[in-house]
Amino acid sequence: MDVRDDRPSPGTPDLPRDPHGGEQSDGVSRRGFLTRGVAALAGMTSVAAALSPLRHLDRDDIPSIAEFFQKHYKEMTAEDKQEVFRRVQEAVKRHHGVDVELADPGPLAGVEFVYGLNLSRCIGCRKCVHACVKENNQSSAPEIEYIRVLEMEKGSIDVETANHHYPEKVVPDADKYYMPVQCHQCDNPPCVKVCPVEATWEEDDGITVIDYDWCIGCRYCEAACPYWARRFNFTEPAVAGPLNTDMAYLSNRPRPKGVVEKCTFCLHRTRVGRMPACLEVCPTGSRKFGNVLDPDSEVAYILRHKRVYVLKQDVGTLPRFFYYFDERGSRYHEPISEEVGS
């Protein structure tokens, strides 16, 4: 019988063997080459599919190197801030065609802002809503509003059954009362606790702010807020009318797509001695704002002498936004007579 000896002869180099028999002349079998080629092609196809959404991105959707490595607001030096503010100003000029000076007013020493709203006097006209939209450069398409006015049944405090979409032409309804809801600037803010990148935080004057350049759009804060106070930009915001150029970095500068925004008590106004826009436009004087640490302030007086109501007090957020009632002189009672007032 002819027995084949597969052992290499002396001096012959060993060649790798194909698992199906035969020797590989160059170290790679035809089957192995095809298998690896198909795997590489599949990998490239997967990468291409993963990157395909990027083709829809505009120039401003992709951060520059400087934007990508921007420091946290609290860690930035004065020079860092000026560079960031310059980029924001250039973006505003490019998108809106206006020149702006971006302010950055800090918290005032010895000041803790609180906001009181008189439910006895609010007539549900929504003028505060429209003033807030204009002041804070909020989007009109899609529509974003920081203040939500609820039409409530008399004798009820159930906000879940309130009417958000009542017609303004018939207010006030004698059988209803109205409760505007906005950011409560909590002293124990759940929104701050859940933010994974610390893009939102509470400042020394009680205002909770957002750095829109650090927000990653996860919407954890929106889910955590018990007052429905945060809004998310699902698309590129479109501001109707002229842009309000009196703006601050942590307040009303234009926001990009994919970030959360909210009320900041108009910090670009209130930190320089002015009142919030919603308060100034209120026709009934229902809104009161000031420094609760000042015992002579109007808000401190209200907290001492009025019937105060805190929305969802049981959740323990310790809000700086509260509601109060007039026992006399409201639209639900006869006006105070001159004899009583004298």
Give an account of the 3D structure:
With 342 residues, this protein is α+β, with helices and mostly antiparallel strands. It has 10 helices and 12 strands. It has a domain at 113-325: Alpha-Beta Plaits (2-Layer Sandwich). The strands form 5 sheets. The chain has a 4-stranded mixed beta sheet with strand order 10-2-12-11, covered by helices on one side. The longest helix is centred in the N-terminal third of the chain and has 22 residues, at 30-51. The chain has helices at residues 30-51, 65-68, 78-96, 127-135, 190-194, 220-224, 267-270, 277-281, 298-305, 338-341; strands at 101-103, 113-118, 148-153, 176-181, 200-202, 208-210, 231-232, 246-248, 260-261, 287-291, 307-309, 321-325. The protein starts with 29 loop residues before the first helix and ends with a helix. The model has no long low-confidence stretch (mean pLDDT 86). Strand 5 and strand 6 (208-210) form a beta hairpin. Helix content is 25%, strand content 14%.
